[in-house]
Amino acid sequence: MRLKPQFRRLKAFLAAGGRVVAVAAGLLLAAGTVSWAAWAHVIPFVAGHEYFRLRSIRVACDNPSVQASALAELGGLYDGSSLWQIDPPAVEQRLREQSWVRQASVSRSFPWKVSVDVARRHAVAATISRNKVYLVDDDGVLFQEVEPERAPDLAYLTGWEDAPAQAERASRLRALLAVLAEANRRSYRVSELHMDADAVVWMFPADMKASVRLGSAWGVSAAFERLGFALKELAPVVDQLRSIDADYNDRVVVRGADDKFPALVTARVDRPAAVTAPPLPLPAAPAAVPSSKEASRRNG
Question: Is residue 172 part of a domain?
Fold first, then answer.
């Protein structure tokens, strides 16, 4: 079957165009292969050139006990390394693996400089875990083990580790940190915060012999309000108090050293006021005693 003239011309045009495309593709492939081969030789030459050797490491860290050279070594930064082969995210990750490092930022400045900025964790409390004392930051990270006799004068957080699941332990620790932050905001000097098996928070003030039942960590703001009013009303006899229960909605219950402490104030908190009433039984003291100083304070 013979094609009409117009179809024969179309067929010839498409055949010629296909040859042109094939030739162009071949040229591009050849050019790419040549370029890649050339670049494969250029990359090692540039990366290993003396011009890009690391000569300056600027280190900024708010931990005065850590030397800049030691910090650079922790990040795997050494004089003479090629700047092209230094991976800032990898260096940051190595630095963050140090328990005391909270944030790390690393940047390259071509041709031969690296900058390292590190922020340390700051202890806001201490805690006991597996019979060891650790410092805790405000994120709830146990970042440094310390000897009990060398532990700084910080509030101890106890009882949180008694939960069976890791997630619950972390939640209880964060709850105690929130209570501590509220206590600090209200200018209470805290020796210890303890969370019992029922998630009830007990506070042991550093300047009082009384233990304070605050109740649930989620309701401590109201409990602190009631406690503040009660302490104001009982200021003349505060040294005689041995337990204070601020876990009631409308009253505060106190007990004295001789279990015969009289009722001093009788009124509803929402008037506002505080109530002292017959003593309530207290739970056993926390099993983990933070320090000999704390033990002597409680027994005093």
Answer: yes
